[in-house]
Protein: Membrane carboxypeptidase (Penicillin-binding protein)
Organism: Glycomyces sambucus
Amino acid sequence: MSDSSKPVAQTWFGPITAVQRRAMFALVPVAVAFGLVVGLAFLPVTSGIGGLAKVGSEAVLDLPDELTLPPAPESSTLYAADGETVIATFGDQYRVQLEYDQIPESVIEALVATEDSNFFEHNGVDPEGVMRALVTNIADGGTSEGASTITMQYVRQVLSYTATTPDEVAAASEVTIDRKVKEMGYALALEEEMPKEDILTNYLNTVYFGNGAYGIGAAAQVYYGKVPADLTVAESAMLVGLIQSPSVYDPINGSSEAATARRDHVVNRMVDVGYLTSDEGTTAKEEALNLNPQDANNTSGGAIDSDYGFFVDYFEKWWEQQEDFGETEEIRKARLYRGGYEITSTLNTELQDASQEAVEDQLETGSEYALGSVVVEPGTGAIEVMAVNREYSNDVSDNGPNTANDEYKGSYPNTTNPLLSGNSDVPGYQAGSSFKMFTMLAALEEGLPLDTTIYSPYQYTSEYVVGDGAASCGNYWCPKNASASEVGDYNMWTGFGESVNTYFVQLAERIGVEKAINVAERLGIKFRNPLDLSHVENYPETYGPFVLGVTQTTPLDMAAAYAALPADGVYCKPIPVHSAVTNSGGTIAFESECDQAISVEVARAAVDAARCPTGYGAAAGNCTWGTAEQVSAAVDGPVAGKTGTTDSNSTNWFVGFTPNAAAAAFVADPDSPQNFVGDGNLGKPANAVADILAAQWEINGEGDFTPPTELVH
C-alpha cells in the first residue's frame, strides 16, 4: 500500500499523513530540547514565565535589556587608516517614529492576518504553528515553514540590531533549532514585560519596507506620499506584503505584478480571519496600486571626496560580500547603512593624495585613456591607495565621445566603473610582460636557479599550437622579442631585466605553462574574461601566450600578487578595512586571509631578479639594463618590479614594490581595449609608480630585501 492510500489520522491541529507520522518519530530527540518552551506556551499568560524558571531554563530566558528598547538605526562612518579622517558616510535610516494610536487599524489587521493570526491569543509562541511547522519541515527535509510569531520576529530584529560581532550577526538569523528555541524563550519573556500594543508598535517602527524606508511611517511616505492614517485598506495590505521580501515585491523598482499578487494575498488573509468581508476584500483587490513614489529623506552619503570614490565603492562591494553580516547582499548593505558602525579603513590619505597627483602628472583627467594605480601592503593585504585619472560620478552628461563611435559616451572623465578592481563587466586589461613573473616563480619552484641560461633568438617557434595569426609560424606560436638586437644567452636576471620574450617562452616549455598558471592563481589572479577562463580551465598545458600576458587582469590583483614577494611568499587577499566599532561599543577586528603561497627562498630569488628592471641592481647576480630604470632613480630605497606591454601597445603596465608596499599601474582605453595607447603613454605607468613608491618611501622608509641563499647557481 502506498503512503497516499493509507488512512489519514486526525490530530488537534488537523490531519496527519503517513509521511508526517514518520516525521513525528524523528521529533523525539528534538522535543527534549524545546518541549518545555513550547509546553509553556500553552499555559495562561499569567503563569508562563514563572513555571519555566522553575524547570531550569533561566539561560534561555535571560532577557536582554535591549529587547525592550532597541537602538534606533544609525548611519555608518568610514574613516581613513588614521582613524580620524572621514572619507565616507553611509545611511538610509529614513523612519518616522509612531505611537500605537497613529498606526491605522488596517495596517495592524493586515500584519496580524498575514504574519501571525493568533497574535492576540498566544503569549509569544504559537504552539499549534510550531508543531505544524516542525512536522512539515522534518517531513520535507527542509525549512519551508518557520512558525515565527510577530513577537519572535521582533526579537530577531532586536538581536540583529544589537549584535556586536559578525558571529552574533550570523547567530541572530541562522536557521537552527537552537536559535529557534532561544527566540521562543525570549518571546515568552518579552510578552511578560511588554504589552501586545507596544510589541506591534516597535515592530512596525523598525521593520524594513524597502527603498530606504524603515517602519510603516516612512513606508507610507515613500510609496504613497501619505501619513499612515490616510492609507486605504489596499495600500495597507500592499505595504504589509513588502515585509516578507522588500526586493521581490518592490512595486517601484521591481515588479508591480508581484506586488499586486502579494497585496491580494494579504487581503485574502484579512478576509479569512474575519477582518474584512468578502465584498470588502473584492473591493480592495480591485483598487489600483496608486503609487506616488517619494525619495526617502535619508542620510545616504558616500565618498566625501571624488578621489576616494573608487576606494569607497570597492569597500561597499566588499562589505556586501561578507556573509557574516547577513544572508543576502541586501541585508548586508542595510546593516552598513543603518548599523551605526565607526569603520577604520586601510586607505592612507597621504599616500592616496600623492598617488592621485602622480597619476594626474602623467595623464590628466579628461583623457580618453585611463591611468590608474593601486597600492597594497605586503603581509597584510591592506589596500592603501586607489587612484585613477577619473572622477567617481554617475553624471556622464559631460563625457566626451569615444574615438570609435562619436555617439557613444565614454567612461571619461566621469565613471563609476571599477576600473581598478574589476567585476564581471570590467574583466581588466591585458597584463603584458608583467605576467612573466609567474613563469619565473614556477621555474624557481621546479628547482631551476636564477642563472639558468638559455639561448634566446629574436623570434622563436614554440611547441604551442595557435592556428593562423600574426604570431603564428606553421600553426605554432612564434613570438618575437621587442628588439631585433635582443639575441643571445640570457638568464633570469638579464632575461627579466630586459624582458626577453623568447627566453620566458622557452622557460615555460621546460616546466609546463600550467605550472605558471597555478602560481598566478595561488597569488590571487582571477580570470574574469570568459575566453581567458576557458583556456585556463580546459587547455592550461597549451596556453603558451599566457606567459607573455595576453590574459586580462586588474591593478588590484597585480598589486596583491606582487606584494607576496617582499612578504617572503605570503599572499594576503586584499582587504579595505582594519576594524569597526559597533553602535553598542563592541570592536570588530578584520584581518586578511593570508597563506604561504610560495616558499621563502623562491620569493627571495624572484625579488632579486625583479631588482633588474628598475635599475636597482641584483644582490646575488648581475643585471644588464632594465626596462624601467627611472624607478630606482626616483625611489630613495630598495625597489623592484616589472614592466608590461601588450601587442600593438594597447595596454602598458608597471608593477613595482619596496619592502613595505606594492604598486601596480596601467594605461589603456577602457572603452576600447584594443585602442593603441601611443608611444607617448608607454612609460607613464612606470613613471607614476616611481613617484608613488618615492612618496611611500618618504612616509615609511624602512626595511630591505633579503638576498636569496638558494636557487642562485
Summary: The longest strand covers residues 661-668. The first helix runs from residue 18 to 41. Residues 1-37, 40-60, 403-408 have pLDDT under 50 and may be disordered.
